[in-house]
Structure of U3 small nucleolar RNA-interacting protein 2:
Amino acid sequence: MAVSSDGKYLASGDQNKLIFIWNAETCQNLHKFQGHRGAVSALSFQKGTYQLFSASHDRSIKVWNVAENSYIETLFGHQDCVTGLDSLSRERCVTAGGRDGTVRVWKIAEESQLVFSGQEGSIDCIRLINEEHMVSGADDGSIAVWNVSKKKPLARVKCAHGKHGVPGLEEPHWISAVSAVLNSNVVASGSHDGSVRLWQCGEGFRGLHPLFTIPLVGFVNCLQFSTTAEFLVAGVGQEHRLGRWWRLKEARNGLYIIPFKRKQPHSEGS
């Protein structure tokens, strides 16, 4: 699901390969986009515009103009399901390519793409921190921070949410969601261990340092900071968003809203 930066339009995608455009205020369905040949896995509006990017299990990214109800173009390159997508103000988007093991930056005007690698397994989620840096998560349990001009991660934390399983056969908890406080050095990760962890990027984004952990119950399938970073929304389910590998009966499908308290500045003489 994605909302235009002015709050006018809302876009949602489904397993039936369709994208629905809604009036965000009245929830009236305005239009339906067709064209993907697989489930729609991610959506993002370019900020300040009505240009919509969509990612799909058909390995493609499509570009649409919501205000004109029109299709613009299709971007090809990923060799597996596209599992994550994000964009900001520039005319480009970033994507995670699942088991093709790549992160890509798509430059729309230049009709070009940059390919990044450095995480193992399936890269399942990605989010821009600012126009130059992004954070991704993979099912090898790692989170990574990237610069759009460097082909390898600036920082990577293995087993970011620990391991599970019997001794000697432990496996890392998969990273199923990431988010970032826009234009800051704070990122968040979610996993099927039922927790959200907050991290601080080091100087020059070369490093990730744990801040604290928020325990939840269920698969953390999506994360989103509010624009003012006053709270974090976590979408939690009984199953992983990409497949039915496990089911946690004690979990409930729903949303957690996690508020953050801002430190009050000390007054003079206190």
User: Anything to note?
Assistant: DSSP finds no helices and 25 strands in the chain. The chain has two domains: 1-76, 81-270. The first strand starts at residue 2 and ends at 3. The domain at 1-76 is CATH 2.40.10.480 (Thrombin, subunit H).
